[in-house]
Amino acid sequence: MKHLRILQLNYSSSAIGGTERNLIEYADQFTKLGHYVLTCSLHKKQGDLADELIRRNLPFLSLGFSFPWKLHRLLDLVKLVHQNHFDVINIYGFKITVLTTLLLKLSGSHVIVSGLDGTDDWRRPYHVALESFAYPFIGGWIAVSNNVKEVFMKRERIVGEKIKVIHCAVNTNILSPRLKEKSAEIRARLKISPDIFIIGNTSVIKPFKGHVDILKALRMLKDKNVRFKCIFVGKDHLHGKIQAIATKLGLKDDIIFTGFVENLYDIVPVFDLYVSASLVEGLSVAMLEAMALGLPIIVTPVGGTLEVVNDGENGLITRVKKPTILFEKIFELVNNPVKRKMLGDNASKKIRKEFSLETKVQEKLNYFYSLLKK
After folding, report:
1. Are 258 and 235 in contact (CB under 8 A)?
2. What is the pLDDT of residue 44?
3. CATH superfamily of 173-354
């Protein structure tokens, strides 16, 4: 099959979350297979995503759009598409869909594929109505989980046959099973003694990620005289509010906030337990990465989580906005190293078998080729 010319188009490059990490990995793998991939951000602000792509020598472009003063940048996008003769344009997000889909369709004979990476619970009827005008110009959709697919079929009435489910992926080639020496090295760097139990979370700090519920559960854990550290790894979008809550709960000395970390695997192997209390998800890449590393996990049953996690087999399921239940499950695993190992081993096997990047890259390419034949 011929090599493809692919444009990955999102709105902003200022931050890296799970979606952006997968976007980077796809660009990297497609390029290694001989395809041309340009990742383009519409917005003028350049940040972590752009920096990581550039660090990997992957093509990146920021168009410098801002509303309403730089609408002419949309014409620059049309020129870009027309000059590069892309086969596939993979768009991400509501803003991109509304602002660019018609222009993209008019600028060439490429296929437009929309990425559905979350349930977008913030959407109101007028969002759905606005975006529906773009649907006739979209060749297909890729949802990161069956749950996301079902939400968009019901709420936005997209025909199910046009939505392909390709779960998020983990680049297992750069992972190795958790090594004790790596963990010991990180503990030493963080000045955490070997007898301290380490709980971790690698989500960006936003309201729907549930950091407050984790803190409440940790307060209960501290009341049980458990010696622990909790490490929150991720960019803070709440400007210190979570840190203030931690201090108010008497947890200031028990929590480490690292901010954005370029390479998660420089810190995640030190975790004894991965915990997430997310209120909504499409499918958490952070959870998949933790599982791939062989970490035991406790997570909420949101989005596509239950498509990956079997409660009691390769992880534990807690309930949304129920910090007491979260505490009970954390306390259970703190005191049961045998169960932690069993959960972690099963989690690693699951991810490496079913969610490897190589498998998902081929699925995505096959879908692109199938759309181009239509």
Report:
1. no
2. 64
3. Glycogen Phosphorylase B; (3.40.50.2000)
